[in-house]
Protein 1
Amino acid sequence: MSVYILAIESSCDDTSAAVIQDRKILANFIANQAIHKDFGGVVPELASRAHQQNIIPVIHKALANANISKKQLNAVAFTNGPGLLGSLLVGASFAKTFSLGLGIPLIPVNHMEAHILAHFIEDARQQEPPSFPFLCLTVSGGHTQVMLVKDYFDMELIGQTIDDAAGETFDKAAKIMGLPYPGGPLIDQYAAKGDSRAFRFPYPSVPGLDFSFSGLKTSILYFLRDRLKEDPDFIEKNKYDLSASIQHTIVGILMKQLKKASRETGIRQIAIAGGVSANSGLRQALLDEQEKGDWKVFIPPFEYCTDNAAMIAITGYFKYLKKDFSSLDISPFTRY
Ligand code: KG4
Ligand code: ZN
């Protein structure tokens, strides 16, 4: 008998609902919140309000598209953290009500574990999942971490950013260049037309397997401040080369630590997750390593990289198999 789960993701600024049948996604919808563009970043109060407006329509759409009635659902899974508290509360409250109303189990899901377990979604566009153990670089707007994944729910954090996240660095660099939020995808597009060696930015020296991006952000800021004094049109004239050089540096920092993690653990199955895994420079750098015969890399389809409920659904499915359910008094957490 198949297991059907409704999953909800509302940790940041995207409201998403998915329906899974065992490991197959039947529907996965995301309502993006355009409102934050005007503010150059996610405004928590606006995000939670928009989740309230979006959650019912998104869930209706997911159920209708999956052609599933509420009565067929075996459980409801939701993101319990980390994330913005007000945003998480919307998804959590909805999931609790749904669980209570239908008399089905409630499954809280860790957003960061879910990014990693997205590799296990059964999808024609997705390669066979990695076998255990593997390393996963999770890079998003809020996180940069390398996890040693020993089993579905046995993960060891072996490296993480000590300041900014990789996606945050893309977005802040874009903001300094006057590009709209979120700037990561735009830097990626511009980088394709530029010379990645046109400008050099320093690499941080961080002990162990951790990452640091705040020095890069500051050096971009000072570099552009000085160049703009000489030529007010410097950014506009050099936006492609600047984007390519910034992307090259961020990817270089990520790859340096990832290679070190692989050397130190002896693990050569490397997966990526999180919004920044959509970045073409990062994807290429990983594929280059695979080409050299050093690694086997796992890159999920784009819609499973950025925040989405499909990853909550697959994680919920594995928890369902373990009967890892929660009572209604559970409350969201904001930090990993
Ligand atoms: O995982 P995600 O959707 O949300 C968070 O949990 O943060 O990641 C969003 C982040 C943003 O910082 C965005 O700029 C970045 O991922 N991003 C990219 C690209 N696509 C999304 N960064 C660089 N290149 C891209 N193509
Ligand atoms: Zn995320």
Note: The longest strand covers residues 24-31.
Protein 2
Amino acid sequence: MEGEVRLQGLKRFKEVEMVREALRDDRKVMTKSSSVDLVTQTDQKVEQLIIQSVKEKFPTHRFIGEESVAAGEACDLTDSPTWIIDPIDGTTNFVHAFPFVAISIGFSVNKQSEFGVVYSCLEDKMFTARRGKGAFCNGEQLKVSDQEDIKQSIIATEFGSSRDPEAVDKIFSSLRNILCIPVHGVRGAGSAAINLCLVASGCVEAYYEIGIHIWDVAAGSLIVSEAGGVLIDVEGGAVDLMSRRLVAANSRTIAERIVKEIDSFSPLRDDAPPPKQ
Ligand code: IPD
Ligand code: CA
């Protein structure tokens, strides 16, 4: 498909150059929902560039973009072809020049993921997946780890951007439970999209988080499933990308073992109606 060809060539696109240039310059930091929910002009410009260039080719397609939603657009996933865009996943990393920053683009039709692309800008790794056609990194096919013993595993997670003490307590309680299984280690790249690509690449056995948004995981979740992994909710049911909760693992065994240790909670859904004024 033409759109996919364009995405495969994302490395050569000015969106990527824009991110790399901004990393060399001063980055003016603004905040969104709280003092730790960061955004820069680069996030906004990259999203606009992607939307404009897709619109030129596919004028009827719809978009869910992190910065457009922050500016008041609805986060509405319908049956129409929809591009789900995180212009910079790992914005806090980007602000601090911590070297894991990705551009993430998912594409859904009838609410089903059709393809996903995550470009890890500083590692120069292009992860791609198309439904039923496998997942790839720089052209090489990806396969999840075959380790099914949680005690021989590394698990990825993040602290997220909520500083609500009750949520933080639950995040730490889950982390403590998982560490003390014990697992070999716990890691986090600071980018949900890159964490998912680490699962798909077999570098970690699983990644879980409560508090992510659909744009953080739309592309990466397809990359995991096309690499042979599984996606479930933190309480074990079917995954719902609007629910802001996700366990992605190399196998159902590992995913269900993690679920047992998670002290779950439910953040406000991405598709929740805006609060009444
Ligand atoms: C965030 C990153 C982070 C994760 C947060 C996400 P952003 O996305 O993926 O690793 O912990 O939940 O919201 O704000 O950098 O696009
Ligand atoms: Ca982002």
Note: Residues 43, 66, 86, 88-89, 91 surround calcium ion (ligand 2) (CB under 6 Å).
